[in-house]
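Note to self: keep these together.
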Amino acid sequence: MIRSKSGVDTDVWPGIAYVPAGTKAKVAAPVAGFLFRRAVGRLPVRVRMDDGSEIGGGDAHSPLMVIRRPADFAARVGQSGLIGFGEAYMAGDWDADDLTAVLEVFATRMASLIPNSLQRLRSLYVPKQPRAERNTTKNTRSNIARHYDLSNELFELFLDETMTYSAALFAATGTHEDNEDLADAQRRKIDRLLDLAQVGEGSRVLEIGTGWGELAIRAAARGATVRSVTLSTEQQELAGKRIAAAGFAERVQVDLLDYRLVDGEYDAVVSVEMIEAVGHQYWGTYFQTIDRLLAPGGRVAIQAITMPHDRMVATRNTYTWVHKYIFPGGFLPSIRAIEEVTESQTSLRVRERLSMGDHYARTLRRWDEEFRAHPKETAELGFDGIFDRMWHFYLCYSEAGFRSGYLDVQQIVLDRRGDK
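Structure:
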């Protein structure tokens, strides 16, 4: 039996409209409740229950998590683990005034929240990625569309004027919160990548993952000719308009094309936070394709979100809340994985890296503030309150990952050993 919550579109949000009430949920809910209490008892967080009582290892200055419907929360977590944890937030079973701060506490101890004895049973309990979401040439376009084709107008609500949807590079270092314009920080990030790839007058540039065209525009402004490929029809349309408005329609070609099908030869290959959408099964193909397309003496500059290698290995076949609701088919590499794949399967070698995790945390905070400032406009675009909570959770969840150090983002330069 399942119980539907009124006011929720059961077709759009089946995982939110219904609280799990089958045998698995009934058996697992008490276990989930016990493990949750055990975990928070060792964490610097306060958890306020619906009766006003508090648990957790925090003090008066610690982040506060409020559980409004404990039974529903336990049922969702018991049924679906961390997917259920996110769904419980979407459903309103729990809340937090400072969601990032609460999630950062959990992210900091991510690897130790579940006892080792239960970690060994992970493969029996945690769902696997659906085969329909593996990034084959048949599936990848639908995976990309589910996120990037939501609505250009939605992304315009919270991105800056450059329409850049990746980590910015701020002038101030560390976590210092200054008032630098986000668009300027995004341009600094792009220019650094183009410098690393040695893009200049006459360069033939391949961009894998167009976004909304800002990198292609700035490369063309240097005198380069650019071929940019994307699988998002929405991005292709708006990027083309932005490129034409900037006066570079003759220098930039934007193709709706899988990166594996690109042909030609290029002096520079740039790719910003696209490897995360490749899938670990295809990292070799991704770098082999770049290797095939790179001209002698050429350089590669990518920006990649990374995670610790041990956690990457432990979770590479896990289906997560982010897969289900945000990025189907995605997976984050480790630096070690990038180095091992390129060394064993290509002639490319990593030459230099820049860690920018703190900068991504600050970027995400700016995006979340802008997104939450436009609830009326979001509703007018057809997105409901559950979507708002989902998107807020996604942005805060990501920010918490970077603030805790569980995630990082790197600018990476590769070239061929021996190339002059």
